[in-house]
Design a protein that fits this description.
- The protein contains 2 helices and 7 strands.
- Strands 1-2-3-5-6-7-4 form a 7-stranded antiparallel sheet, with helices on both faces.
- It is of the alpha+beta class and about 170 residues long.
- The chain has a single domain, classed as Roll (Thiol Ester Dehydrase, Chain A).
- The protein starts with a helix and ends in a 7-residue tail after the last strand.
Length: about 170
């Protein structure tokens, strides 16, 4: 693991400790970048202006990422744009599917914004698959800042390419 990944993992563990009474160090595994997502503006490794988010999984198949926001994602002055937060939630759910070797596209997505998220916040992203029955996959995601739930989402993803006519 590179020193960058190690530092990122340590930040992630610090954020996870804010959510749990259990202060043991969780076992997290770096999720390999999915080949079909190399150009994704959030998690891809190729976009010049992309975030290049790295996701990690735990023993129960939840996925996590750490992200430090900036003024470049703001909507109202000093507050992150809701569409940007929506994209973080969507990315977390997509990575949860990748972690189970499923390629899916968002069918529908419900979002609850619970608090404004300030620019320069350190955000913990969490995603998990709730149920999976081909071609439909139900997933959830949450965004936390300092251990406080800021936004949450549930969605239905469809297996990529399902229903496509040749």
């Amino acid at each position: 693991m590179s020193s960058t990944h190690q530092a990122e993992k340590e930040q992630l563990i610090k954020q996870l400790h804010l959510l749990s009474q259990d202060k043991s160090t969780p076992s997290l595994t770096l999720i390999c970048k999915h080949p079909s997502h190399q150009h994704c503006v959030l998690c891809g490794s190729h976009p010049v202006l992309g975030l290049k988010l790295n996701f990690y999984s735990d023993h129960i198949q939840q996925v996590f990422a750490y992200f430090k926001s900036s003024i470049h994602q703001q909507g109202y002055e000093g507050i992150l744009h809701g569409g940007f937060l929506s994209a973080l939630l969507d990315s977390s759910m997509c990575q949860a599917l990748f972690n189970q070797e499923i390629e899916g596209v968002t069918g529908d997505m419900n979002i609850r914004f619970l608090h404004e998220v300030n620019v320069n916040s350190e955000i913990l992203m969490v995603g998990r698959v709730i149920s999976s029955r081909h071609p439909l996959h139900k997933v959830e995601a949450e965004l936390y800042v300092n251990g406080i739930l800021m936004a949450k989402s549930n969605a239905r993803f469809m297996t990529k390419g399902f229903g496509r006519k040749e």
